[in-house]
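Anyone up for a design puzzle?
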């Protein structure tokens, strides 16, 4: 499937809206869906029968994500930090499927910079992806989520509840996203929208591969993570995706404002 190609339903229409269906499939929008937790999350929701809009910057990884179930997962190559990114992403999802039920703010970047080396530009780049983009995408999605009485799931990090020496801006952005999760849960509850977050610990994803860390630095970080993980192993993206999909499920209808660690016990060690 080519990226950014509208899905087709069984009637041959280019819009996946299921008018007249009293129980249409949910539509789920997942950012950072090209690899790692985002890819596993797209797969988890597709396996539940949802329509998934898989958003990311790079077309090839998105196509690989969609190959899991091309009838359920539609890739959308977009930069969530672009000026018109949030509005275009939400508008496209609604054009394709006619509704939006779940928003998963997963996309994030990590850099090798620290307090002594941050520049205005590098700090802005990291916060634009990790914090500002979720705010603006959520804002753009609010009318559709209010109509569906939908769910927002933010992906943060267990490090944000402790500290990350040498990468404080990443941890700070994720900690801010957790505060937004709690605030939005209260603010949006009267509108029928639930908000929760999943805080992964050490997970086997390629995020560090794209950060600029050397293999030696990545090994040192992994050792530090494992030293602070009571279960003594690295988690799998599928384990985080399970938590995301469960928090977004109808069975979790009385859960909001929660930050769920998926970290092998790291946050309590």
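Challenge accepted. My sequence:
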């Amino acid at each position: 499937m080519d990226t950014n190609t509208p899905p087709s339903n069984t009637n041959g229409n280019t819009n996946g809206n299921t008018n007249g269906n009293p129980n249409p499939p949910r539509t789920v929008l997942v950012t950072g869906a090209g690899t790692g937790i985002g890819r596993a999350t797209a797969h988890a929701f597709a396996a539940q029968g949802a329509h998934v809009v898989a958003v990311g910057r790079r077309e090839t990884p998105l196509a690989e994500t969609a190959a899991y179930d091309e009838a359920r997962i539609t890739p959308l190559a977009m930069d969530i930090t672009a000026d018109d990114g949030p509005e275009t992403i939400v508008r496209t999802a609604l054009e394709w499927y006619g509704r939006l039920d779940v928003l998963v703010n997963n996309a994030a970047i990590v850099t090798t910079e620290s307090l002594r080396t941050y520049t205005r530009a590098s700090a802005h780049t990291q916060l634009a992806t990790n914090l500002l983009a979720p705010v603006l995408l959520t804002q753009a999605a609010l009318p559709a989520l209010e109509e569906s009485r939908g769910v927002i799931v933010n992906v943060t990090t267990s490090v944000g509840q402790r500290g990350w020496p040498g990468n404080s801006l990443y941890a700070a952005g994720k900690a801010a996203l957790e505060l937004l999760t709690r605030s939005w849960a209260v603010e949006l509850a009267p509108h029928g929208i639930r908000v929760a977050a999943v805080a992964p610990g050490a997970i086997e994803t390629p995020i560090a591969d794209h950060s600029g860390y050397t293999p030696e630095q990545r090994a040192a970080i992994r050792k530090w993570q494992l030293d602070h993980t009571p279960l003594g192993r690295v988690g799998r993206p599928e384990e985080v995706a399970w938590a995301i999909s469960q928090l977004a499920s109808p069975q979790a209808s009385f859960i909001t404002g929660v930050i769920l660690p998926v970290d092998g016990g790291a946050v309590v060690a």
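A detail worth pointing out: Residues 120-148 form the longest helix (29 residues).
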